[in-house]
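Incident review: delayed structure delivery

Summary: a single-chain prediction request sat in the queue longer than the usual turnaround. Root cause was a stuck worker, restarted by the on-call engineer. No data loss occurred. The affected request and its eventual output are reproduced below so the record is complete for anyone auditing the incident later.

Affected input:
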Amino acid sequence: MREAGQGSVMKPAVKPVIGHRLPVCWRELPRRMAYTDKQGMTGTRLWSIIIVVIIHAIIGYAFVTGLAYNVVKKVAQDLKTFDVKDEPPPPEEKLPPPPPPDNMPPPPVVTPPPIVNVAPTMAPVIIATPTPQPVIHIVPPAPPPPPPPPIVSRLEPRGNPGSWTSNDDYPPAAIRASESGTTGFRLDIGPDGRVTQCTVTSSSGSSTLDSTTCSLLKRRAKFTPGRDSSGAASGGVYNSRIKWVLPSN
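Output delivered after worker restart:
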């Protein structure tokens, strides 16, 4: 406290409560004290005012602390707690039961059969008999036939070969078709001088003329057979050609 001069009163040192906000009445205390100084209040009245202010401060402090306690209590009641349980340990693995005891009776004792000594059997001796080789008789080839006796006289046609055909023998079909040409032929002659086979060696270009040629020669051609050195008659082959020319009339 400080000493005041004449007409002033002492002002107590006010210490605010730490941790709490001062009430309005307590904060206005210095201003009111200054007001009392100006009005010239007595000491008794001043102390009455101070006591009232202190009572208000105590009530405000109790109200503030009680309200805070109720809030904390309410929050604590609303807070739901629960216990964290540890996970149970995994169950122990059960070992398989031991196998049942083997109560099977032991197998019967079998007596092995007696060993019989058997004399080895000798394999039969096989004597190979040689197979006789076949005898091949080589037959000498037959001697070639003797050559024919030389021909003393040759085969000759009887008469003029040009007389074997004439214009009257010209086939009418060939005349109507205006066919002409030269037919080559070969005659096989027997020992009797007659024609045994006629073959066209070159065609005239007309099948009618070729077939007419062989047909006429087989009927009309005659030959004198040849003779060998023994005088026997021999046949032969005669080759020639006939030229077919269309008649003028």
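Verification: The two ends are 195 Å apart (CA to CA).
Action items: add queue-age alerting; document worker restart procedure.
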